[in-house]
Please model this.
Amino acid sequence: MAGEVTVDALPYFDQGYEESGVKEAALALIEEETRRYRPTKNYLEFLPPPNYKAFETEIMKNEWERMQARLPMETLSMKRCELPQPPTGKMTDVQAWLEAVHNSEAQLEHQGLRIQNLELLHEYGSTVWKNSNELLVRMLNTAQQQLQEVRKSIQDVNWQRKNEQIEAGSKLKNLEDSWVGLVSKNYEIERVCLEMEDQIKAYKPSS
Model:
């Protein structure tokens, strides 16, 4: 394949990585490689300019302006929970009393809904909470199991790589020892041949 790189290193078997000069040589190779792929001055120039206000709402904008002006946050308004009577000047105004009655009816309905929610929470809340906790526990156990499987898979891959590299390294070591032995034998044979030639020349009668 085009661009295919053959890695001839066996990090689980090779020795000598801590020797002087090895780290410098590796850094030099990395530097040489990075020179070929210098980034451009602006590698994001193909992207449109960012719009930092894309998700800014009116509430966020007002709150940001308040914080910049160091103004205090508005307190929670309890006006909707109040039951005011008509003002003094409208004590005889029927429409003002109707608005006050409608407001009291809305407050009463709201309090009734709160009571219903509290009763439902009292009756079913503990069960729902237990079910929610059980669901979270199952999710946690599932995530932990998946994590263990991933870790085991990583460990299996590392063990396989280590075994393969040790096996390959042993074969290479045996082949290297065999090569060294053959070269030594060839050298010894050549040395003996030269000695025999010298002996033959020494015994050859002179003319």
The chain is about 65% helix and 0% strand. Residues 100-207 form one domain.
